Amino acid sequence: MSATTAIGIDIGGTGIKGAVINLTTGALLTDRIKIPTPKGGRPQDIIDTTTELLARVATGTDDLPVGICFPAVIKNGHTMSAANVSDKWIGLAAESVFEKALKRPIHFVNDADAAGYAESQFGAAQNVSGVVLLTTLGTGIGTALLNNGVLVPNTELGHLQIEGKDYESKAAYSAKEREDLSWDKWATRLQKYYSTLEALFSPDLFIVGGGVSKHHEDFLPLLRLKTRIIPAVHRNNAGILGAAALAVKHQD
Ligand code: BGC
Is the pTM value of this prediction over 0.85? Predict the structure, then answer.
């Protein structure tokens, strides 16, 4: 039988977050603990911080499945890219390295894929048929592609080349902050980005996640798209929810 409780950990460019999750409801059973990502984002430093975080999250719950999500292409437990973290991650057998350090089985997954899976189980993509494209607007842009609830992993559409630019450098929330863009100016870039996705994938629904999606009323109404575009339900917790849920799914 599947576990109904698991631990989710979300490793990001700025923070590492974790909590115990109820997988029936998607509710957090503990406070969400967050520790800043060590400068430079090197593997050993992140492993040390994650070990500390897990010890704080998992008090007395040593046997729970653990899922970890990370901003990289993940193939067979290996991190195959590195954006906003150290290049040392490229080609690293991350899942087994973390298993050794944390002394328990781990399931490793891309952060946007985890968020997309969480929204399909507990949020805005629940019971939605057809093609759903979730985008997370944060330090980078993460994407998760779902067809009838089935995830196509590692789409990495934040790195689409538009006008010769890796477009997450123009349209991620970090670009808005870095360049102090107004909602209008940022929305002009988002318009280009979502129109390109729309032309390529003809989705039935766009879901917009990341912390900034709590301000969706300031920018989503500015976009002119054929496809419905709605905010994610779980925003900054979607990664930990999805990582926990996928850890249990992969145990079965
Ligand atoms: C990374 C993706 C990640 C996204 C959001 C991108 O820069 O390449 O793997 O999902 O940022 O964190």
Answer: yes
